[in-house]
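Researcher: Quick sanity check before group meeting.
Model: Go ahead. Protein one:
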Amino acid sequence: MFQNYDAPSRAHPIADRLGALRAHLARLGLAGFIVPHADEYQGEYIPASAERLAWLTGFTGSAGAAIVLADEAAVFVDGRYTLQVRDQVDVADFTPQDLIALPPHQWLKGKLKAGDRIGYDPRLLTLAEVRRLEAACKANKAELVALDENPIDAIWTDRPAPPLTQVMAQPDELAGETADAKIRRLQAILAEKDVDAAILAQSDSIAWTFNIRGADVPHNPVVLSYALLRRDQRPTLYVNGRKLSNMLRDALAERADIKEERALLADLAELGADGRRVLLDPQTTPALFASTLTDAKAVIVEGADPVVLPKARKNAVELDGTRRAHRRDGVAMTRFLAWLDANGARGTETEISVAKKLEAFRAEAGDEDGSPLLEISFDTISGAGSDGAIVHYRVNEATDRKLESGTLYLVDSGAQYRDGTTDITRTIAIGQPSAEMRDRFTRVLKGHIALATARFPTGTTGAQLDTLARHALWQAGLDFDHGTGHGVGAFLSVHEGPVRISKAGHLPPEPGMILSNEPGYYKTGAYGIRIENLIVVTPPAAIAGGDRQMLGFETITLAPIDRNLIDVALLSPAERAWMDAYHARVREALAPTLAGEDLQFLIRATQPLDA
């Protein structure tokens, strides 16, 4: 199993750890310290060696921060973790705060006194984050202090070793473009921006650029490393050499200089000494790199990571591989749904047993296809009944709930195959659903279809498209508090920028981008509903009778949507036609690979709505 279901525990000596940190801060002459949920590479997923926030507070969520002052401490989480943080953190030690309503820099601004010195690790905070904290300190005549050593590392005596997994090459026949060609494209971008070099601090950008993959963090096949692109010279890859086989090192050395990570700061200083113009993304670059360049008198040019957009625009080979991965994943999902249809209402299955069953089906589908399951793409969200209303619920042995008749079950899951990354959510009625459940599900489905069938001009933003997925809910006074869509990598990160379909999505989707389509509805204490497929942005094409070409979406996820939850009377003829056509395509794609009860289930589950 790729997922751990151990229950978090408050058995850790949190009060002792907090006391030890405060004593260490006092010795350093600091009034406080900032603890982000981050590693040196600013990724969404971090290795055990970087779980400083969890070690100090007990909170194990994927996003958050803490601030420790001499006489109080706070832990900041977003709405996904409001319940979890109170289960895991002793409020006598840390006061939970809303990360969105009261972000750390604003909370700190209200606590500081003149002369206070607040420490931070400049490897773990980005330039943009440091600027916000510096402004808060300046407003109170306090000082933000960059530290050479993280105080938590000084007292965390049994800290795990950093990961040391082997790097593997992503073959050109799966990448669709050689690393040499990618580097030349990126060098052209640097020339257009009139910069001499660019820092790559995001692991997925580095993996894409050099056609490499790794296993340094859970669920995302990246290598923890850095890179420096140069406009007129070979790039440099900064990576622990013990992660490279001799064969791979030789292959990489044909196109890049290979150095240990510790060499990066000296190379940045050298760029500054030469007066070079260096591009960095303030949202993703550690503050330490920016200060090193500034101290060396380099000219910093702020802008987006130059890899982000080329990586998001998948080429034809990447798209074909992703479609293959989705057919394989669709077989696993359909076998799982058939099994759940036969066993879900017995009252013996639980959120954990069902999640394990799904992972087993994925492993079998990969083995049968010759493309093994390499990882899941995130911890499976397996929510029965009221747990489904917790948007990013993560089941563990203490919260494990049985599936019961008359309830809904929500499962959001995904897989990493060598040729593609998947992410799919299905909501299933266990037994007979209520009229309200069917109404809400159908409104979510209407939003899903509206986005799937959208035609829109070039330049349309994610925020504009987001309204399509919410319209049917809004008309009933309903909404959901998460984005409708995020980018997805090609055997890379399941959450990929820069485009989002959300109320805050200010960038436009472009052809070749893979996005999720996942509207939902959540009734606290009762049930949750989400329908998620992945979609690909299609090139501009003419519409009969129109005078402008329009972009659109191709749905690539292949798995039945629960017909028992659809109130057909709420659907328009066009929506019913889409639903029937989608199910017909699912049946055509998956039937040749299924047999027996699985095939019979597929046939039943994909019948036309009026059948």
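Researcher: Fine. The other one?
Model: Protein two, sequence then structure:
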Amino acid sequence: MYLFQRTLIVCVCAWIVRQGTLGAGQISRARLVGGNSNGTGRLELEYNGEWVTIYGSYSSSYFKNIDAKVACRMLGFGNSGVAFVYTNAPDLFGEGTGSVLNHRFQCKGNETNLRQCDTSSWSVSPSTSHTYDVGISCEPTQLRLADGDTPQSGRVEVFFKGQWSSICDSGFDNEDARAICNMLGYHDTGIAKAFTGSHFGQGAGDMILSSVNCKGTETDIKMCAATWGKNNCNHRKDAGVNCDSTPIRLVNGPTNSSGRVEILHGGQWGTICGDSNFDKYDVTVICKMLGIYSPNAFGHRNAFYGEGNGNVIVSSLNCDGSESDIASCQSYAWSVPGSSSSSCSHSNDVGVNCDGVTGIRLMDGTSEQSGRVEIFHNGHWGTISDNYFDNHDLTVICRMMGYEYSSKSFFMKGGHYGNGIGEIVATRLQCNGAESDIGQCSATWWPQTKTESHTNDVGVNCDGVIPIKLLEGDNKTTGRVEILHNGKYGTICSRSFNRLDLTVVCRMMGIENIPQDAYWYPAATYAQGLGEIVVSDLNCNGIEHSVGQCRGTWPAYSSCDHSMDVFVSCNGAPEKLRLVNGKNSYTGRVEIFHAGQWGTICDDSFDRADAVVICRILKFKNPERAVAYSQAHFGQGNQTTHIVASHLHCNGLETNLGQCTPSWNPTGCGHNEDIGVDCCPGCQDIIIG
């Protein structure tokens, strides 16, 4: 019986051996074949003197990376590389020959030999297809960057089977680029930009890697989901990366921190498109790249600093401001020499001013704080158009100049301080008043301003001071009004001049509260000025600090001449009046001492209310009893005597004629219309003797 059992066991074992089943303990060695290196290739195991391949299936469900880790340790690689299973080894390393081992190893990863992974028997079949032979890699993937702008950028190439080959750009993105930069040791740049479409030129050789799908944290591209082996890609779809800061410079600006933005890409310097997406966040990142961190930085579109050459490399730039390089911002694909992916032209090139300071000055003003506003641009000074200009813009400009904006400050349109030359740098300036520089304001900037004219150059007066003087008067508060303009004193036309305007003029003379009997009139012949008539049609509301804050016509209407120069009396002294050719002291022709000489008044619209005021000025008791006479009732004045006024339009309550609204220096009147008054009707002169 014992002999029979022993014989049966021997027979069964012999049958099992013939069928190809053997115990794990009979595996002796492992090797890698077809990979042109000791650490990559088709995995083969030796048993019973025969080298067999391993069945892996396309999904790697039979032989996994953790199994490959044990195989690599068995091959002597320890933990030196990334243990990785190629599911399509026949495409990469060729098909094996001989038998195929069909077994799920289910290693834990800490074994030193595949024999230790499973104690169950392994099935070896000489007839199984080698279509799913397992290939593994036990060494780090070798990568390099070729034809880049810097050593840290270029076309991505992987060393495989003794040659360098490109990676297909299908699905290639910034996460893949980040993983590749990690592999290359570029961890600290903060930049990982993916490029597609053979951005850095076309490579050579087979393309064995496609559909890369990394998370960005991997340290070897084999740790990413990817397809290794044959694919339909060609070298027009080579992938590239930039792991370095983008080379950047500013060109044609007035300072080292301003100018047209240019970046080096594809071996050439190119520009950035200033489309509608370009904003302060993009400016922040660009200036950060240049090492400038000013919160006041601003940018310009439309080739403000001139048009560049070469490619418009980046368009639709969309940074959020946190990036350290524009390569990390969203944008359209970057273009390279010879490509036409961007529809943008150099007329849209962007520029930045990273310090946020515009060169500015005031020219041809009446004081240090006034003048035509000029901006330094393109190597010379240009101007600002007055279109849309308002007090918010004035506030910012005064602040830029180091002057304080106050209620006295004002601006002047229409080339008030003379027409500038060169470019009109900006128009439609629309500041909100809080900006530190007009570059931060919304505006239309050069070269979009080419159609503007220097006749609209804007000027400002930050201190509100207009030098003023009174000439040909009896005292410091009486005389012809002249104000400084364009380096010379000129007059004010009396057209539309009224008491509110008088109030402002007297305030400019230092008289804040003018008396009720202050008055004005057109200058007499001998008191007329010379030179420019600076303004006409003043329309003050009476609260302004100077006529510069009033509405008006600057320069004056051409219909104004010096016979209409404004003459004022701010001290309220009553006019000098006298009665001439009457029968007694309280009757006679009315004559007024005007601008240094005696003259008469025309009787147009003359009435009793006017006579009452005249008698009040002459200090007669009960002036309300006055009687008015016209048509030279008391004789005509001398033909050489000037007719000073007509149409007095008094209401009877005034204390001087300046408070009425007379027409000064009338035309069409003759001395046959001289007025007269009786200030005490019914009175008799005292008879002496």
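Researcher: One line on it for the slide.
Model: The first strand starts at residue 21 and ends at 22.
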